[in-house]
Automatic annotation (TrEMBL):
The keyword Glycoprotein does not apply. Residues 17-264 form the NADP-dependent oxidoreductase domain. GO terms for molecular function: oxidoreductase activity, acting on the CH-OH group of donors, NAD or NADP as acceptor. Transmembrane segments: none annotated. The active site is at 51 (proton donor). Substrate binds at residue 113. This is Glyoxal reductase. The record marks 80 as: Lowers pKa of active site Tyr. Belongs to the aldo/keto reductase family. Keywords: NADP, Oxidoreductase. The keyword NADP applies. InterPro entries: AKR (IPR020471), Aldo/ket_reductase_CS (IPR018170), NAD(P)_OxRdtase_dom_sf (IPR036812), NADP_OxRdtase_dom (IPR023210). Gene3D superfamilies: NADP-dependent oxidoreductase domain (3.20.20.100).
Amino acid sequence: MGAKSITLNNGVQMPEIGYGVFRVEEGKDLEKAVETAIRIGYRSIDTAAIYQNEKSVGKGVQNAIDAGLVTREELFITSKVWNDGLSYDETIQAYNDTLERLGLEYLDLYLIHWPGQNKYMEPWKALEALYKEGRIKSIGVSNFQVSHLEHLLETAEVKPVINQIEFHPKLVQEEVRAFCEKHDIQVEAWSPLMNAELLNHETVNEIAESLGKSAAQVILRWDLQHGVVTIPKSMTESRIKENIDIYDFELTEEQVKTLDALDEHKRIGPDPDQFDFK
């Protein structure tokens, strides 16, 4: 079992399902969960400096490599810079610090975590330099709205490969997704299950029951059918396995539209137009 891959705008292959670790504390449980996810078939692992769990993610990755489950080259590791007013040099240092915590020589993807109030231009220049030096395989952004992307693209020498955004049936983000599609920027969903809130939704469960699938599988399948990379999080082995086991069914066009219609523009995270690291 494993995820299929998509091709980013720089030609790099990325699994369309990854393992997320947002709000998971550093420690042995996370190390084991990462190793378990890799054993089950995940090849993409997503973390961030602000999660304060990069060390455990790195140890879990290394344990999986040492156990012969995978090679480093087969994995796709993502982290993010918490760019609260960082200068060019501070961004370079932040990347070096992330590599040290993870115990890795390079990342497959490094993202600017939030746009803030125009706090992304200097960090982006630093990411471009690291990319051109071959120290990162791909660079991208997270939580960028259309206005942020337009501003960045005016001067960017390297186009972002990814925009990782909050995306789920209650927040479908049509404008952002349409802009990214037009500019060949892959959309990736964080918190696709809305912190498990959607798992008890009547409509989702009705569709799940009709298909003989779980609510989580229905939502993650909906992500893929929208062409969105997804990174669900779970610390339970059975659910980690369930979340990647979504290739033996498809939602009908009507079912996709039914889920689309749940959109309430409802966020569980901050509004990127307002959030400024405060």
